[in-house]
Design a protein that fits this description.
By secondary structure, the protein is of the alpha+beta class. Helices cover 26% and strands 25% of the residues. It contains eight helices and 19 strands.
């Protein structure tokens, strides 16, 4: 990462750090550093920062980075991480409210302990609520849109907005939430359920996930979106990509819609492997797979070759 221009950052109450390695914070365990990493003290701290931040400073909200590939050149901007009040989960009657930094799996557990049904599927999603809202995360027969009432977000100037589910335009792995807006929290409408049935459903999801997905390796979430009427993994398998390797990156033998860092891989190797898979699937079936994993940051190898 080059030095670039300097920025006069406004004061904050939370924690602000410079040149923070991101690889240890991502599931893939790859990627360069963030020029700045900001952990706001609360929503007001984040709003004040957004209102006063330099206009040219890029900003990237980041949860647990389970569905994120940070390129080797790092993020030449501001990465925002959520904790404390921004990860709080509360239940009021049959409504659950969760901060953007709350783990999806924790949200499912809190709902279950309250005897509320509707979010069991989230026990199978290793992300956070902020990402779940932005991409309408889903798994095991459920998705965020099924139970979402509203989401609160800050625009690029730090102004708060409450958006109803229909205003978010949620569809398969996407939303119409404007780029640059930062999700703060979301509310979900649940229903009373039988605690034993809820626990059994969540246990079944855990078991299925452990059986079908690579959980004890450095990987990300599903690499590619399912095309209409198809499953990405079936197309990848049919194209002969199961177990395909590129450098120290590999297509998972267990579930071929997952890419794996076998140890010491670069982000470039993982991304290049993904493009190799896309090319083989396109040649074999004519289907152009779309990335579900978000690729962010500077491509160091491409910059050095230019």
């Amino acid at each position: 990462m080059t030095g670039g221009r300097d920025f006069d950052l406004p004061p904050v109450r939370g924690r602000m750090r410079r040149m923070v390695p991101l690889a240890p914070l991502t599931w893939f365990r790859v990627g360069g550093p963030a020029r700045f990493l900001f952990q706001p003290a609360d929503a007001e701290d984040l709003a004040a920062f957004l209102a006063a931040r330099p206009e040219a400073l890029p900003l990237l909200p980041m949860g647990v980075a389970s569905n994120l590939l940070v390129r080797d050149g790092g993020i030449d901007g501001m990465v925002v991480r959520f904790g404390g009040p921004l990860a709080k989960v509360t239940v009021e009657g049959e409504v659950l409210m969760a901060g953007a930094g709350a783990l999806d799996q924790r949200v499912a557990t809190v709902a279950a302990r309250a005897g509320l049904s509707g979010l069991e599927f989230m026990i199978g999603i290793p992300g956070t609520i902020g990402g779940a809202v932005r991409m309408n995360a889903g798994a095991f027969g459920g998705e965020t849109a099924d139970r979402l009432i509203w989401a609160e977000a800050l625009d690029e100037a730090g102004r708060p907005h409450r958006l109803r589910r229909d205003e978010l335009g949620l569809s398969y792995r996407s939303s119409r939430l404007p780029e640059g807006w930062v999700v703060l929290r979301a509310a979900f409408a649940l229903a009373p359920g039988d605690p034993e049935a809820i626990a059994a459903r969540m246990a079944a999801i855990r078991e299925e996930r452990a059986r079908s997905q690579p959980l004890r390796v450095a990987t990300g979430g599903s690499t590619f979106k399912n095309p209409p009427g198809e499953k990405a993994w079936r197309l990848i398998d049919a194209a002969g990509c199961r177990g395909l390797r590129h450098g120290r990156a590999m297509v998972s033998e267990q579930h071929c819609n997952f890419l794996v860092n076998t140890g010491g891989a670069t982000a470039a190797e993982i991304e290049e492997l993904g493009e190799m898979v896309r090319a083989r699937v396109r040649e074999q079936s004519g289907v152009d797979l779309c990335w579900e994993i978000h690729r962010v940051g500077r491509n160091r190898a491409r910059e050095e070759a230019a």
